[in-house]
Design goal:
- The structure is a homotrimer of 82-residue chains.
- With 82 residues, chain A is mostly helical.
- The first copy, chain A, has helices spanning 2-46, 51-81.
- The first copy, chain A, starts with a helix and ends with a helix.
- Chains in contact: A-B, A-C.
- At the A-C interface, helix 1 and helix 2 of A face helix 1 and helix 2 of C.
- Chains A, B, C: Residues 16-78 form the V-ATPase proteolipid subunit C-like domain.
- Chains A, B, C: The record marks 66 as: Reversibly protonated during proton transport.
- Chains A, B, C: Its main location: membrane.
């Protein structure tokens, strides 16, 4: 009885941690990819003929942030099932 | 009886976590896509003839942030059912 | 009985720590790689003929941040299994 209550409390705490963790990872991705996207827009306005180069580099570097952020969200999902 | 009370309290905590988590993920998307959108508007104003390039790049990079933020919100929704 | 309760509580706290840790690591990667990407975009716009050099250096230095952030996330995952 006591044990079941404690286990339920643990599940609740884990769920709260997972929600906050996933949300904070989204803030990280927003800050990082936002900076890159803003700079890329200004760069295209400055040198419209370099659009192809800017686009490819923008996607490469944004993918690095995306990778870490998505992996962090998946770690948070894992906490539901372990 | 005691157990049912504790379980209800846990459900409440999970709901609070899910709501705050979804809201914080929305802040992340707001910061990131806001930066990109602002820079894109200024870029179009600076080089109106590059509007097509700027629009397509703006959508690509905003979609990356959108992906992480939406996934975080879905993780928060999941916490209701687990 | 008492021991089992304590162990369960520890598991829950470990899960919360793992989620927060992974999310904060993603913020770190977002801030760092975001700065690098933004500066690289502006650099390409300033000197479009140096695109290759800028890209290779951008990837090298972003990989350093990526390495630490991914390792931190993996350490957080490890806390589930130990």
């Amino acid at each position: 009885m006591m044990l079941a209550m404690i286990l339920a409390a643990i599940d609740g705490l884990l769920g709260i941690g997972a929600c906050f963790g996933a949300a904070i990872a989204a803030i990280g991705a927003g800050i990082g990819i936002g900076k890159i996207g803003a700079a890329a827009m200004e760069a295209i306005a400055r040198q419209p003929e370099a659009t192809g180069d800017i686009r490819s580099n923008m996607i490469v570097i944004a993918a690095l942030i995306e990778g870490v952020a998505l992996f962090a969200v998946i770690v948070c999902v894992l906490s539901f099932f372990l």
